[in-house]
Amino acid sequence: MENVLLNVSGMSCGHCVSAVEGSVGKLNGVNQVKVHLESGKVDVAFNQEKVTLEEIKEAIDDQGYDVE
Length: 68
Hints:
It is a single chain. By secondary structure, the protein is an alpha+beta fold. The protein has a single domain, classed as Alpha-Beta Plaits (2-Layer Sandwich). It contains 2 helices and 4 strands, in the order βαββαβ. It has a 4-stranded antiparallel β-sheet with strand order 2-3-1-4, covered by helices on one side. The chain is globular. The chain starts with a strand and ends with a strand.
């Protein structure tokens, strides 16, 4: 199990939280995703044998947010 803390810019409201948590949470292999809106961070626990960090970043990017 891998845990990463990603810096994500552009998130500002509850809708942003729902969009990111929803899209990343749907990925096969993601066990947990938590958006920390105040700090602009996304905490993700995932199985690297089922999903890559790039796929997670792409899911966030597809929602219109920038992963730094």
